[in-house]
Amino acid sequence: MKKTTGTDRSITRKWRPATRAVRGGTWRSEHGETSEALFLTSGYTYDDAATVAARFAGEQEGMTYSRLQNPSVAMLEERIALMEGAEACRAQATGMAAMTTALLCQLSAGDHIVSARAAFGSCRWIVDNLLPRFGIEKTIVDGADNAAWEAAIRPNTKVFFFETPANPTMELVDMEYVCGLARAHGIVSVVDNAFCTPVLQRPLEFGADVVAYSATKLMDGQGRVLAGAVCGSEAFINEVLLPFQRNTGPNCSPFNAWIVFKGLETLELRARRQSENALKLGQFIEGRVPRMLHPGLPSHPQHDLAARQMDACGPIFSFILDGGRAQAHAVLDALELIDISNNIGDSKSLMCHPASTTHHNVGPEGRAEMGVEEGMLRINVGLEDIDDLIEDMDQALKKAGL
Length: 402
Description:
This protein is α/β, with parallel strands linked by helices. The chain has helices at about 10, 15-25, 50-55, 70-85, 95-105, 120-135, 145-150, 175-185, 195-200, 235-250, 255-265, 265-285, 305-310, 325-335, 365-370, 385-400, and strands at about 1-5, 25-30, 90, 110-115, 135-140, 155-165, 190, 210-215, 230, 290-295, 315-320, 340, 350, 375-380. The strands form 3 sheets. Strands 3-9-8-7-6-4-5 form a 7-stranded mixed beta sheet, sandwiched between helices. A 5-stranded mixed beta sheet has the order 10-11-14-13-12. Strands 1-2 form a two-stranded antiparallel ribbon.
């Protein structure tokens, strides 16, 4: 098996983003296949005992065990790192494995983390419930309030953690300010960029130290497999994250890595078209509902910030109805084309009621703090004809009295 120009940084650094998404990270076997091979193996053999000893000692490149290295997974890691503009990347089994690994690999008892209040329900569960079990202190802040981040800093603060846009409130964090503040105080900023991917937003360009992903979402884009990824400097990935991942095992399977790897080839096309569809659908819905939460619309309070740090606003937005859960469920039940589903990033349009699905586990008080109201609906806008989506939403809103 040989590496190709897709792994030669002296060559790939000259490529533009679209080329990196198609060619980056490609290895080829002696057969010269055009579609990258899938390596379904847990272990490897060696020509002699000296070779395996050198590999385990880190003195020679090569595979030792698929919990640490696998060709299919390595190709995915190299491609994501190239697209992100990161020095290194490690793939994980799921998006939540990526978030957990990115935090636990660097936090210990007595440390302090500052986290944005608006976040995916499982991310809040980690910060609110898991980290405190290990003696890690936490402070929850309004991510959109720059002053709140500074006020929360303590002598033992080690990590800032946030996603932008936030799921499902679509609140934004000013990455340039917050990540700059973190660096000024020796704090590591960890950004969940799953809603955008590097096609639409690149946190490292705004000073982020670590970028984490649920690759299950837009990177796969067709709702097929679970995967996650963490990007950062070589020092962070290899010296801080890798020992944790190697010994705890939240690794991405070769098959899932291969699926996501192939999905990246069409990521830019999908993300930009879905962003266009989402903006058009949001414009149609806005006059029909009490509150619209779409950063791409001028009505969003952080619209100007979105324009500064996002190339496009992605396929996902939310809106809030005055009729609470009953009216929100009525809209869902009236849909004919758009599916009821809690997934996002899919090429099919999906819609859900966060209070009873993705954020059910944080409880009523947690949802109230985060701004996840009973009348909120979140939609992932897919690649269908936008007129069909508008017609389906129109009839569903009418049936729900809107």
